[in-house]
Specification:
Strand content: 5-15%
Distance between the termini: 49 Å
Number of domains: 1
Region (Disordered): 1-20
Order of helices and strands: EHEEEEHHHHHEEHHHHHHHHH
CATH topology: Endonuclease III, domain 1
Number of helices: 15
CATH class: Mainly Alpha
Protein name: DNA-3-methyladenine glycosylase II
Number of strands: 7
Catalytic activity: Hydrolysis of alkylated DNA, releasing 3-methyladenine, 3-methylguanine, 7-methylguanine and 7-methyladenine
CATH architecture: Orthogonal Bundle
Structural class: alpha+beta
EC number: 3.2.2.21
Oligomer: single chain
Shape: globular
Strand order of the largest sheet: 1-5-4-3-2
GO molecular function: alkylated DNA binding; DNA-3-methyladenine glycosylase activity; DNA-7-methylguanine glycosylase activity
């Protein structure tokens, strides 16, 4: 059983770094059990199950099973944020500066797997998170492979690009995924080889050149696949309001958010994550939740 250990030059919080990879509490590809984080992936060399645990204030260890174990462990340090470079991030805005003071050890990790970050983001376009998480859970449970090794019950490896390409349209319908998002998922899977060759500097242009992939979807993908500290999720239904309420005490729109965060470029996503994990993010009170449209009944 291959293993790896990473020691950082200060406190480490794998929970904060890895949590954006979890798509809801029932994600078949990401579970937290007794303090251990279990994650599955389909690497270039095959499926892998990894158990990640913090063993000291500055140290994290990983055990991995499956044909992709060695490849996964090669990228384990980067997954935990070893390549994250916060140099130059010195926010003058008081709330963001306080968030940084509270969580100075936040690190942005990178998976290196573009399609695995892109497809869940496509499923999350223009719908409630609860509905998107359900779709991800249903599709990966049915079409993903069983997780190798001693994984928690029910864990699955994300489907390969070939499998995503061949999922019938009615299966997307049963998962409450509309035809537009389904076409985008299949189209992205058809271009999987080119997607995995993308480099951080040109990834935004490459991703947004795909039909159905816009600025928001590209940013959400780049945050996870490349650990992009500046990938701001413009177009998110709630984000601008949260940033405005947290920093200015009032909701703002996307244009105002972009202007507000311009001084922290190229760390705009880092600033947003710090607000989220520091406890300083203020969310607008919501009225009664609108019912999720049931496409399966149509």
């Amino acid at each position: 059983m291959p293993t790896a250990s990473v020691t950082f030059g200060g406190p480490v919080s794998p929970g904060l770094t890895l949590s954006p990879l979890r798509r809801g509490g029932g994600d078949p590809c990401f579970q937290v059990v007794a303090g251990d984080t279990w994650r599955t992936s389909m690497t270039r060399t095959g499926a892998v199950t990894a158990r990640i645990r913090k063993t000291a204030p500055d140290t994290v260890e990983c055990e991995a099973w499956g044909p992709g174990a060695a490849e996964f462990l090669d990228g384990f340090a980067a997954l935990l944020g070893s390549e994250d470079d916060p140099s130059g991030f010195a926010p003058a805005e008081p709330t963001i500066a306080e968030a940084h003071r509270r969580v100075p050890h936040l690190r942005l990790g990178r998976t290196g797997r573009v399609l695995e970050a892109l497809i869940p983001a496509v499923l999350e376009q223009r719908v409630y998170g609860k509905d998107a998480f359900r779709a991800w859970r249903l599709l990966t449970t049915k079409y993903g492979a069983p997780a190798p090794g001693p994984a928690p019950a029910g864990m699955r490896v994300p489907p390969t690009a070939e499998v995503w390409r061949r999922i019938p349209s009615w299966e997307f319908h049963l998962a409450n995924v509309d035809p537009g998002r389904a076409r985008t998922v299949v189209g992205c899977a058809q271009r999987a080889d080119a997607l995995e060759r993308l480099q951080p500097a040109t990834a935004a242009a490459g991703l947004t050149s795909l039909p159905g992939v816009g600025v928001w979807t590209a940013a959400e993908t780049m945050q996870r696949a490349f650990g992009d500290a500046d990938a701001l999720s413009v177009g998110d239904y709630h984000l601008a309001k949260v940033v405005g309420l947290s920093v200015l005490g009032r909701p703002i729109d996307d244009a105002e958010m972009v202007e507000l965060l311009e001084p922290v470029r190229p760390h705009r996503h880092r600033a947003v994550r710090l607000l989220e994990v520091s406890g300083l993010a203020i969310r607008q009170r919501r009225g009664p939740r609108q019912a999720i449209p049931n496409l399966r009944a149509l």
